[in-house]
Amino acid sequence: MDFNHSEDRQMLADTLARYLQQRYPTGVRHKISSSDTGWSSEHWSALAELGVVGALFPEEAGGFGGSGFDIAAVFEQFGKALVVEPFLGTLLAGRILSKVQGQKQLLEEVIAGTVPLAFAHEEPQSRYDLAQVAVRAEQNGGVWTLSGCKAVVPQLEAANQILVSARIAGTPGEESGIGLFLTDVASSGSQVRGYPLVDGGRGGELILAGSRATLIAENGYSLIEDAVATGLVALSWEAIGVMDVLKAATLDYLRTRKQFGVPIGKFQALQHRMANMSLEIEQARSAGINAAAALDETRVARERAVSAAKFTIGRVGTLVAEEAIQLHGGIGMTWELPLSHYAKRLTMIGHQLGDEDHHLDRFVALGRVA
Amino acid sequence: MDLRFAPEEEAFREEVRTFLKEKLPTRIAEKVRQGKRLTKQDHETWHAILNERGWLANHWPKEYGGPGWSVAQAYIFDVETALAHAPRIIPFAVSMLGPVLIKYGSEAQKSHWLPRILDGTDWWCQGYSEPGSGSDLASLKTSAVRDGDHYIVNGQKTWTTLAQHANMIFCLVRTSTTGKKQEGISFLLIDMNTPGVEVRPIVLLDGEREVNEVFFTDVRVPVANLVGEENKGWTYAKYLLTYERTNIAGVGGSMAAFKELQRIAATERKNGKPLAEDPLFAARLARLEIDLENMKTTNLRVLAASGGGAASLEFSAMLKIRGTEIRQEITSLTRRALGPYAQPFISEALDEGFNGEPVGPEYAASAAVDYFNNRKLSIFGGSNEVQREIITKAILEL
Questions:
Q1: Do B389 and A251 touch (CB under 8 A)?
Q2: Is B355 a residue whose pLDDT tops 90?
């Protein structure tokens, strides 16, 4: 048993934390998140140069990490600084590229920081179910075209290459018959409808109308599941980073804000809420550790651990966000206080890759298989 | 990070399992599994078996008869014995008094009392709580007044677990009423056969006699039975508590109880299907399983960070709260799983050798009793509200 990061991994986390503290403070982050693009190519390149993208992928794929704990260490720091850059899509799509033939060169460019990726899998009606793919893929004279719509893809506009899932055979809900395709918005004839997100940055709908794409894998369901597992580890640890910031800020406020002549942290009603919050955050951290450790396990063990983690993060995340705002009182409702933005991000993490109900249901179903 | 146990730790797990298979009497394990009453004899039998292997006082140093285990080994032992339905080791002598004597006792006290704990000569109980003190332990009033070579003890202890079996009690007594209330307390060993000691049962809501009141009327206790220095008892009492904290989450017991709950949920039926497949019950079970998995990892994190010493107050308070909440939820779901059959109460069915016809499934006899009995978990050992105060003090620094 060892609950410490390796020296190399800790060093990367420290370097990343320092960079974000100095170059990506709240003011800068807000400017980026509210800009027309919703991300920063300058910071993206700088972070890639620091090795942050490389840390998400294994050596065989040209990176130097790729384990659950590498992903955890990096995304925890993203949470602490509310980073909006297109890392999640790059992780998910890159994970798939690293597992198929013939994509080594593209992945090298991704790791070098020249090509951010997006993963367009969810659809307006899929509601987190990975097999609910309705976008159709058709082949004519050796050329694949896609038709349909992909929903709320984070940082869709930032991506040079988009990984899209589409049905080659079967009907929505079936795990077989889902192909994976690469498409380039500029040359494929697809449309992007971009929009801002409530927690910062941008997302988009991808409208495919006979858009050209390159097939990279047939029957890609297990690749999708595996990639989403890494995404769940990433989101869980981003949430843990966010929760630590919310806890520290709330503690600080309880110590300094006075009412009735004493710091409000003297009041037992508030103390017990704070104690609960801190206990629950430790449970969430344990869930995140379990999920990161399970990425290399067999499918059912892995999927149960990541679903357990996302369920826990969803449940605890909502609690921590709501309590942090409540304990701050009116000031917690203001745009000016960074806390409110952390609370928004934490809550919205619950809406990515499956909420707590979805993952509890999944945990139960997987238990029947185990 | 690496959550796996080392190969030598896994080998140790096998050693414990083999030992349990060979030495744990099936008769006793079955009683534990079915939630039946254990007799004093059952406990003594199991203690003797463990002592023969040198595993009874498993966190004592080697020189006093402990096995010299690592934190991980002690954890593995706790989990494996619980999963095998071994009785829990009665903690008062082995886990509480023993470490205090080893750290603060005189040579004479150590050489006299420690071997008697190991071979079962003495059965100890703990005299801490008093009427009206609750979790405010330092408010205790039982007095010990020096009279030559003796202390004269007067007062009352309460909630004294299994005092009906005990011949010895270790007590916190007040030896000074001046200054801070924590600074006038001493740690005294009292023979319960001394004139003036009286034990009266307190029947709990489940109808069981588990705890007692202990009355002291002019009880003469030799000064040689004072542990450490007079008025320093609070320090020893706190040490005793930190020593128990690393196992405070009760992970092994909860794992065993959860497995039993899963078995029941797979057996009971609703709408013609196993209860485990009912969406609402399945969701309750799943939430509990996830909470338990998270707590297991939190517990291991605390153990790893403690490096064999005491866990931090804040973290052990978290483990106490969550560990007891989880155990209570397990007993709650077990009770719910039985539906109407949680209601019948055949007290004799909890005794070994009951030949009557059970009402409902065999596992129903103890479910509601266990549920009610386990309400104690969030009350004793410092109520969960008091634990929240501890977390507050540690993190708020107010």
A1: no
A2: no
d(CA B305, CA B310): 9
Q: Nearest CA to A295 among A216, A201, A211, A231?
A: A231
Which contiguous run of DSSP H or E holds residue A148?
strand A143-154
Six token digits for residue B342: 């949680």
Residues of chain A positioned with their CB less than 8 A from the CB of B249: none
Q: Who's near A81: CB < 8 A, 6+ residues apart?
A: A20, A21, A24, A29
Which position has the token pair 């004793």? B380
Banded model confidence at residue B369, pLDDT cuts 50, 70, 90: very high
The DSSP call for residue B380 is S
Q: Supply φ then ψ for residue A143, to 5 degrees.
A: -110, 130
- Average confidence score pLDDT of chain B: 93
Distances (CA, A) of B390 to A30, A73, A165, A324: 38, 30, 51, 20
Residues 6+ apart with CB under 8 A from A224: A96, A121, A130, A165, A178, A180
> Mean pLDDT over residues A172-199, rounded?
95
pLDDT grade for B308, boundaries at 50, 70 and 90:
low
Model pLDDT, residue A368: 87
Phi/psi at B295 (nearest 5 deg)? -70, -35
Q: Please answer yes or no on whether B1 and A287 come within 8 Å at the CB atom.
A: no
CB atoms within 10 A of CB A62: 18
Task: Quick: pLDDT tens for B90-116.
Answer: 999 999 999 999 999 999 999 999 999
Most B-contacting residue of A70, A240, A277, A282 (CB-CB within 10 A), to test interface: A282
- The tokens for A73 are 């260490």
> Which range is least confidently modeled, A132-136, A326-330, B57-61, B257-261?
B57-61
A11 shares contact with chain B (CB less than 8 Å): no
From the CA of B239, how many Å to the nearest CA of chain A?
24
Which of A219-233, A288-302, B342-356 shows the lowest mean pLDDT across its residues?
A: B342-356
**Contact predicate A85/A250, CB 8 Å:** no
Beta strand segments in chain B, E: 124-127, 143-147, 150-161, 168-174, 185-191, 197-203, 209-222, 226-227, 269-270, 273-274
- With contact defined as beta carbons under 8 Å apart, do A213 and A188 qualify? yes
pLDDT of residue B244: 63
A80-90 average pLDDT score: 98
B207 Rama sector, left if φ>0, alpha if ψ -120 to 50, beta otherwise: left
Residue B303 has pLDDT above 90, yes or no: no
Q: State the number of CA atoms in the 13 A half-sphere of B339 facing the CB.
A: 12
A290 vs B286, B293, B389: nearest CB: B293
Q: CA B320, B323, B324: angle at the middle one, nearest 5? A: 80
CB A364 within 8 A of CB B277: no
Q: Which residue does chain B place closest to A10, by CA atoms? A: B1
The phi and psi torsions of B220 (rounded to 5 degrees) equal -90, 120
CB contact A5 to B (< 8 Å): yes
Please give the pLDDT value at position A192: 96
Q: Specify the pLDDT at position B214.
A: 98
Which residue is it, tokens 């390149």?
A45
On the question of pLDDT at A152 being above 70, the answer is yes
Residue B178's CB is within 10 A of a number of other CB atoms, namely 8
Q: Which residues of B are catalytic?
A: 244
Handedness of CA A75, A79, A80, A86 (dihedral sign): positive
Q: How far apart are CA B290 and CA A363, in angstroms?
A: 9
Does B295 lie at the interface with A, CB-CB under 8 angstroms? yes
**Which residue of B lies nearest to A3 if distances are taken between CA atoms?**
B1
Which residues contact residue A31 at a Cβ distance below 8 angstroms, ignoring those fewer than 6 apart? none
N-terminal to C-terminal alpha carbon distance within chain B = 34
